[in-house]
Specification:
The structure holds 2 protein chains of 2 kinds. By secondary structure, chain A is α+β, with helices and mostly antiparallel strands. Chain A has helices at 27-38, 41-44, 48-69, 124-131; strands at residues 4-9, 15-24, 76-84, 87-94, 132-140, 143-150. In chain A, 31% of the residues are buried. By secondary structure, chain B is α/β, with parallel strands linked by helices. In chain B, the strands form 2 sheets. Chain B has a 5-stranded mixed beta sheet with strand order 1-2-4-6-7, covered by helices on one side. The chains are: A alpha+beta, B alpha/beta.
Chain lengths: 165, 111
């Protein structure tokens, strides 16, 4: 897997870490990319709890690409992460299918009345939206681009509920 | 997907001996759980203390196992690590499952 990390001076005199990965869109490659990132320099400087949050958001965003953008076909995912001043920004691209209506899913949790009706999916966009900010999706020709900033402080960020009768 | 199961009284304790339950392993997890819970006790406790990471596919698989045991058998969780706990809490699934800090009735080794 190509793995690059480039420290360079930022405007504030601190260091900016950038990592750029390109890998096949499979669940196994997504796992491998995440394992590399967790031990890599971009995420090494943020607190462990925030690294956990980062892994959740990145896993959901990239597994969605494997599952939906490249459904029934193959392709590549590129991931770029920047870390500066304690914040981590992210750009993920693919050349699979566009989002339906070229719009991000709402990502709301379902409200259900019985255990047997509990959903076994649909948590992904809820987690991405809860744990990120400045989330944007754009389609440029055949390219899907998702950008966001990791937002580890998600206290009270949503009012969704799951109630079981 | 390595899991270890042991009957303790009215409880079947299933310990997941993997660091991740993610999109790459969710189906195998569900299959292994289906195998080890055949004829299981009424109470199944899933020990997740070795699992550092669980994504929405892993969460969906845990929900699927809980539904597999219905009606009549209950799935409880134990030993959630911080990132796993966060996924359950944010999705409100912590209100659906009974969650124990550690496998109930097991004395921890003195530190």
């Amino acid at each position: 897997m190509p793995f690059e990390s480039t420290p360079s001076p930022d405007a504030g005199g601190g260091r900016v870490f950038i990592v750029h990965l390109c890998f096949p869109a499979t669940f196994g490659s997504v796992r491998e990319a995440l394992e590399n990132l967790m031990s890599g320099p971009v995420l090494a400087t943020i607190p462990e709890a925030d690294r956990g949050t980062a892994q959740i958001v990145l896993a959901e965003a990239m597994n969605n690409i494997v599952e939906h953008a490249y459904v029934g076909t193959s392709g590549e995912i590129t991931l770029t992460l920047w870390q500066a001043g304690g914040e981590v920004a992210c750009r993920i691209t693919d050349r699979g299918l566009a989002m339906p209506d070229e719009t991000l899913p709402a990502g709301r949790l379902a409200t259900v009345d019985a255990l047997a009706d509990l959903p076994e999916g649909g948590f992904g966009w809820f987690l991405i939206r809860t744990l990120s900010r400045d989330l944007r999706y754009a389609r440029y020709g055949t390219l899907n681009e998702l950008t966001f900033v990791l937002n580890p402080d998600q206290s009270g960020a949503n009012d969704a509920t799951v109630s079981i009768a | 997907m390595k899991v270890n199961s042991e009957t303790m009284g009215d409880m079947l304790v299933v310990r997941v001996e993997e660091p991740r339950i993610d999109a790459a392993g969710a189906i195998q997890f569900k299959e292994r759980m289906r195998e080890v819970t055949v004829d299981a006790a009424p109470r199944v406790v899933l020990d997740l203390s070795c699992v550092n990471f669980l994504d929405s596919s892993g969460l969906g698989a845990v929900v699927a196992v809980m539904k597999l045991l219905l009606p009549g058998r209950k799935l409880e969780l134990a030993g959630l690590t911080p990132t796993v706990e966060k996924v359950f809490r944010l999705t409100r699934m912590d209100s659906v499952f009974k969650i124990h800090p550690a496998v109930p009735g097991v004395l921890r080794d003195a530190v």
